[in-house]
Design goal:
4 domains; 502 residues; five-stranded antiparallel sheet; alpha+beta
């Protein structure tokens, strides 16, 4: 008989042994099949639940500030009005993106590509300088997990209270606490899903439709889908998303080196670790500053032990720094046993000022310069882009024909896009051949109006005298002159060809 089947194992994983023992007979069957201890431990960590302890300190305050900043922007931005419409609206049905005073069309997809490149270089730069700093303070998964955990602590209590509550059998009190917690979670998740949909459909109309229960099936589907995703990710999966699902955790190691600012345990100062009384001189006793209280593990949202070294599961939130600094203060030891610094600072004994100077290494400078150049180019391009666009499409069914009066006629279709907010009065002209013109001067299509943030597809007839040009294709230009209500004139020319038949 295998004696391991009668041994309890701790379900808390790396929680410092504070979680209650539970039986895991499935581990025995895996061992009997020859599974390695590393795989068994990984499976145990996946099954275990992390109970982060609340902590206060400078980094905890920064996380709270970032929660407020990000959520004020996310929840408030769709309700902001700009010139009589929603300030930020990605109208997929109309294929127009409204971003304050700017309107982007499908032809502006190049700006989306540039934004993706900017995001990539920003990711490289921030990771090379400070590791997973975005993950710890601004990532939506971290932010909503922080919100959901705050609700959980207010209703169920701190770490030990939550552990005891989960261990006890179901009763009226436990059912009431769990119901209250999940009710608030679902309300937050549903409001989050509603707000997210409000970026793609006018949120005021969406709100009216929600109150009247008159939303379309797709609107209901996506609202419930994103609400369910928020509830599941922030309420249940939590650290599993950061540890096993987020690709950033996997490839950040190629961008982090010994000079990157990360959450680091000073093993030279902390080891050998162990409990002790405040009254003894731990240096004379041959002990390090770490009292092995495991608070750094208990406050970690991903349940890792930072004293084992930098791990890909660390999101750089600094919770362990706050917890350790409080212990050091109580023990009357210097703070900073766990701190934001580089690996070189520990191995080479560098000061923080020396560490900061080494941040400006070649690849950081290269990332910064590329980021600045691309950002400047994007801003200049957006600031100088024309609010008027014209695409010329030849009528392939009638390349060129001779009409009454000795004229050669070519037919085109013009797609004119007005990306400004005000209507434009347009005038069409042509040049490139003797006597060429765009219809008679009194033709109604020679002068037209295109409303603000709209496009118009119109047929255009261009004529030229038959005897003045040799047969074949000739290069011409169509000139579009636009006059706005404010008196601003915009001139746009587009090259095309004019066919003279034999």
């Amino acid at each position: 008989m295998n004696t391991e089947s009668s041994k309890p194992s701790t379900s808390g994983g790396s929680q410092g042994g504070s979680a209650s023992p539970t039986w895991r007979p499935q581990v025995v069957s895996r061992r009997q099949k020859g599974t390695s201890p590393q795989v068994e431990q990984a499976l145990a960590d996946v099954r275990s639940k992390v109970y982060p302890r609340s902590v206060s300190g400078i980094y905890a305050r920064w996380r709270i500030i970032m929660v407020f900043v990000t959520q004020i922007i996310f929840y408030g931005l769709p309700w902001l009005q700009w010139q009589g419409r929603q300030a930020v609206l990605f109208d997929l049905g109309a294929r127009k993106f409204y971003i304050f005073g700017m309107v982007l069309w499908p032809q502006d997809v190049v700006y989306l590509a540039v934004l993706l490149v900017l995001s990539a270089f920003s990711l490289f730069l921030f990771t090379a300088m400070a590791g997973r700093l975005f993950c710890g303070y601004a990532c939506p998964q971290t932010v909503y997990t922080e919100i959901f955990m705050w609700v959980e602590r207010k209703i169920e209590g701190d770490r030990l209270a939550r552990i005891r509550l989960d261990e006890q059998p179901w009763n009226t009190r436990k059912l009431g606490l769990k119901t209250a917690k999940h009710s608030i979670w679902i309300l937050i998740a549903f409001w989050t899903g509603f707000t997210f949909i409000g970026y793609f459909a006018p949120i005021r109309e969406l709100g009216a439709g929600l109150l009247a229960l008159s939303l379309g099936p797709w609107q209901w589907f996506w609202m419930v889908f994103y609400a369910f995703a928020t509830w599941g990710n922030a309420g249940f999966m939590r650290e599993a998303v950061c540890k096993y699902m987020c690709p950033y955790a996997r490839f950040q190691s190629v961008m982090v080196d010994d000079d990157t600012f990360v959450v680091t345990y000073d093993y030279k100062r902390g080891e050998p670790r162990g409990g002790r009384s405040r009254r003894i001189d731990h240096k004379e006793a041959g002990m390090g500053d770490c009292v092995d209280c495991t608070l750094c593990v208990q406050v970690c949202p991903t349940g890792i032990d930072i004293r084992d070294g930098l791990q890909y599961m660390c999101i750089g939130c600094g919770a362990c720094v706050d917890a350790c600094d409080q212990v050091m203060e109580k023990m009357d030891y210097p703070k900073g046993l766990i701190r934001y610094t580089s690996g070189s600072a520990i191995t080479e004994g560098l000061t923080q000022s020396q560490v900061r100077r080494r941040l400006l290494r070649p690849r950081v400078i290269a990332y910064t310069l590329l980021l600045l150049l691309i950002a400047i180019g994007l801003v200049v391009s957006l600031a100088t882009r024309s609010t008027l666009r014209m695409d010329v499409i030849r009528d392939r069914g009638a390349l060129g024909r001779e009409v009454a009066g000795g004229q050669i006629e070519n037919v085109y279709r013009l797609q004119i896009i007005n990306t400004s907010e005000s209507p434009l009065t347009l005038t069409l002209d042509a040049s490139g051949l003797p006597g060429i013109l765009v219809l008679p001067a009194d033709h109604p299509e020679r002068q037209l109006v295109v409303e603000g943030s709209a496009n118009r597809l119109i047929p255009v007839v261009v004529r030229a005298p038959a005897g003045d040009s040799a047969p074949g294709l000739h290069d011409i230009e169509l000139k579009l002159t636009a006059m706005s209500d404010q008196g601003r004139e915009t001139v746009l020319t587009e090259a095309t060809s004019f066919y003279v038949p034999r």
